[in-house]
Design goal:
two-stranded antiparallel ribbon, 2 strands, 2 domains, globular, about 5% strand, mainly alpha, about 375 residues, Rhopdopsin 7-helix transmembrane proteins
Length: about 375
């Protein structure tokens, strides 16, 4: 019932290959949707879409975020801004580096052969990426707001050391908020095929019965995790971000002289935040719809169908966010673009220079040797 974002599976955690139901040990007939047999073509199309998007996100995300880490971490002067974007790239890189596991899981029709520990790690990294990314964006927004509203104070107090310390706090907070997925994530056989293993959220013990108390506990834990993720991972962060940028826009309108100095960084950060909102908002909306449907006394077949279609699409869109930021830096950040181009050219130049130097050294040594031989022969004559 909890869903794809935690499992890297574009279907809710209790989707099996042929039904959408409560946990496998619950068998209420009214919760069944004969998805596999009634909609096989739709399922196949959604699986193919997920495979394509996951693969694209992996290639672009690993390469793009790897370049960002390389440039901001080793090629650019260490500043507060480079610390922010370096941490953002690290979060996205960690997530995209594990996407081949999701590709394999989807390609094998959601059979999980990687074991319980990898199920927990894979799901935890997804939520860790989401929380770390959004909180780094919050920190960036607050930092920009302070720089515009209190420029002198910011100049005296902003430092790379403080930025690094704040980044560590962000990572710790994101890890704490992601820890429930490590605790509750589990693997188990499909209800219809013991040879197929699923990676899912196990909110109750495997041997629990379907008593009202157990069902209430399952619903409570599901609700807490969903509400926590939506409120702390989206609503509150974006309320802070929007407030910061409202203050920035107001200050720039009243002080035109500042717009020239903050224009380009402002546009880049605004684009990154907009991309995060567009990619993650549909997923959170769909997760609320799914949770609300499960809280009903009788689940709606219409909402089941909506979430069946919507969860794979919104999950894939959320995953794409991890490869968008490097593209935004390249297309909107002239300084970053120049640094990447110069760094790549420098690598090539060094490689060719070393080759030329070796050739020249060899040539000069040969000429010197021949000169010495000639002088010896002249002396003998």
């Amino acid at each position: 019932m909890d869903y794809a974002m935690a499992s890297m599976d574009p279907y809710p955690d209790n989707w099996t290959e042929d039904r959408y139901t409560w946990p496998d040990n619950w068998t209420e007939d009214e919760y069944y949707v004969d998805y596999d047999y009634d909609q096989p073509k739709l399922r196949k199309s959604l699986n193919i879409m997920s495979l394509v998007i996951y693969s694209l996100a992996f290639v672009l995300g690993v390469v793009g975020n790897g370049i960002v880490i390389w440039v901001t971490g080793f090629k650019m002067k260490k500043t507060v801004n480079t610390v922010w974007f370096l941490n953002l790239a690290v979060a996205d890189f960690l997530f995209t580096a594990f996407l081949p596991i999701s590709v394999a899981y989807t390609a094998m029709d959601f059979h999980w052969p990687f074991g319980r520990f990898m199920c927990k790690i894979n799901s935890t990294l997804t939520t860790l990426n989401m929380f770390a990314s959004v909180y780094i964006l919050v920190v960036i927004s607050v930092d920009r707001c302070i720089s515009v509203v209190k420029p002198i104070w910011a100049q005296n107090h902003r430092s790379v050391q403080r930025a690094s310390a704040v980044s560590l706090i962000v990572w710790f907070l994101a890890l704490v908020l992601s820890s429930p997925y490590f605790v509750f994530r589990d693997i188990g056989p499909s209800a219809t095929n013991n040879n197929v293993i699923h990676c899912y959220n196990n909110f109750v013990s495997s041997d629990a019965d379907s008593s009202p108390e157990v069902m209430a506990l399952y619903s409570l834990r599901l609700c807490v995790m969903v509400v926590t993720r939506v409120i702390l991972g989206f609503v509150v962060p974006f309320a802070i971000i929007v407030s910061c940028y409202a203050v920035i826009v107001h200050r720039l309108r009243t002080n035109r002289s500042m717009s020239g100095r903050t224009g380009r960084p402002f546009r880049i950060i605004a684009a990154v935040i907009t991309a995060f909102f567009v990619c993650w908002a549909p997923f959170h909306i769909m997760s609320i719809i799914e949770m609300a449907n499960h809280m009903r006394e009788e689940m709606s077949s219409t909402l089941n169908f909506v979430t069946m279609i919507g969860m794979p699409i919104t999950t894939s869109l959320a995953f794409l966010n991890s490869c968008l930021n490097p593209l935004l830096y390249v297309f909107m950040g002239q300084d970053f673009k120049d640094k990447v181009r110069k760094s790549i050219l420098k690598v090539l130049e060094t490689a060719f220079t070393e080759e030329v130097s070796r050739t020249n050294t060899y040539t000069n040594s040969m000429l010197t040797s021949r000169s010495k031989d000639k002088s010896f022969s002249d002396a003998e004559v």
